[in-house]
Amino acid sequence: MKQTQNILADTFGRTHNYLRISLTERCNLRCSYCMPMDGVPLTPKPHLMTGEELFEIAKLFVDAGVNKIRLTGGEPLIRKDFPEILTHLSTLPVSLSITSNGVNIDRHIAILKSHHVSTINLSLDTLDAIKFKKITFRDYFEKVYANIFKLIDAGFKIKINVVLMKGINDNEINDFIEFTKNHPVNVRFIEFMPFDGNNWNREKTVSLKDILHRLDTAFAKAEILRLPDAPNDTAKNYKIAGYTGEFGIISTVTNPFCDSCNRIRLTANGQLKNCLFSTTESDLLTPFREGKDIKPIIQKAVLGKHAMRGGLSTPEQFNDPKEHSDNRSMIRIGG
Ligand code: SAM
Ligand code: SF4
C-alpha cells in the first residue's frame, strides 16, 4: 500500500493539526497593541480569499490532518459572508472555534450555536469602560461586557483574552481573577507580544513571573490551584479554590511553549504562516487560483518552521523590536 506523507509534520517532530484562519484584515476596534496608530495597508479585495476559496483551501488542510480550525482576524464577525463561511466549514470533520472582540457577537449567537461552535475566545483587556476606550479607541465596553453574559446564558464556554500591559491594565489582574469567582469563564492573561508597529518593548510586558508573584500576594498558597495542562495548551491554567471560573497565563515572551506547537496560520490574503513570529510567508492563493497543487507548498512551508518563535530563539533577538519589523502587524496575521 502507498504510504501517504504527513505534509503537516515539521523537522522537529511537531505535527500541525490546528489551523487558524484570518477572515479579514479589518476591525471595528483599534487596540493599540494590535493595530498600528497609522492603520495598516489593506490588501485590495481581489487579493483576499473569497469564502469559496477559503473553504477549498481549508478542506485541503483537513484532508492533510487538520482537525481544529479557529476563525480570527481582524474581527472575523465583520465579514459579511461570515454565516456562509461558517456553514461551509461546519461540514468538515473539525472542531470549530472563533476569537472575537465580542462587539457584535450577540447577532451571531444562533448561527454559532447551530454550527456547534462551543468555545468562544473573547478579547477584553479591562473591566473599566474609560480604559476600554483608551485601549481600543472605541466606546463599546458596555456592549462587549453585556455580550459575555449573553454568551454564557446561551451555553457557550467562554475564554476571555486579556493582553496585559504594564502601567495600563496590570492593576486589574486581581479584578479579573475576582470576576472568575461567580462567573464560569476562563480568563487568559496574555503577555504583550511584539509585532510590527505596536510600539512594543520588553518593559511593557507583564511576565508570567510577575503575575504569579501578584497572585501570591493576593491569595494564600493553598487557595491557588494549578490545573492540569491540556495537550498543546498554550496557557498554564489555575483556579482559586471555591471559585466558579478559572484563569490561565499565556507566556509567549518569557516562557515560550514552541516545543508543543501544533498551529499554523492562514492569512486573509491566502498566505501560510508557519509561526506567529515568522517573517516569511508562503503564498497559497496565487497557485491555488492557477489550479496548481498547493500541497507541496504547504509541506515546504511546514518543513521550514523554526524550532522556536520564527527563529528568534535568544531573548536578545526576541526582545529587539527591530527583529519584528519584517513581520506583519497582528491585525493582519490573525492571532
Ligand atoms: N478581533 C478579534 C479579537 O480581538 O479577539 C480576533 C483577532 S485578535 C488579533 C486575536 C487575539 O490576539 C486577541 O485576543 C488579541 O488580544 C490578541 N493580540 C493582539 N495583539 C496582541 C499582542 N501584541 N500581544 C498579545 N496578544 C495580542
Ligand atoms: Fe481588532 Fe482584535 Fe486587533 Fe483589537 S485585537 S484591533 S479587536 S483585531
Written description of the protein model:
- It is globular, with a radius of gyration of 19 Å.
- The termini are far apart.
- The protein has helices spanning 51-64, 82-89, 109-114, 129-136, 141-153, 173-182, 208-218, 285-289, 295-303, 315-319, 330-333, and strands at residues 18-22, 68-72, 95-100, 119-123, 157-164, 185-191, 224-226, 235-240, 246-250, 263-266, 271-273, 282-283.
- The model has no long low-confidence stretch (mean pLDDT 95).
- It contains 11 helices and 12 strands.
- It is of the alpha/beta class.
- It has one domain (18-333): Aldolase class I (TIM Barrel, Alpha-Beta Barrel).
- The longest helix is centred in the first third of the chain and has 14 residues, at 51-64.
- A hairpin with an 8-residue loop joins strand 11 and strand 12.
- A 12-stranded mixed sheet has the order 7-8-9-6-5-4-3-2-1-10-11-12.
Which features characterize this protein?
alpha/beta; TIM Barrel; binds S-adenosylmethionine; binds iron/sulfur cluster; globular; 335 residues; twelve-stranded mixed beta sheet
The CATH first-level class comes to Alpha Beta
Number of beta strands: 12
- What is the CATH superfamily? Aldolase class I
The major sheet is characterized as: 12 strands, mixed
Summarize the structure.
With 335 residues, this protein is α/β, with parallel strands linked by helices. 28% of the residues lie in helices and 18% in strands. Iron/sulfur cluster (SF4) binds next to loops.
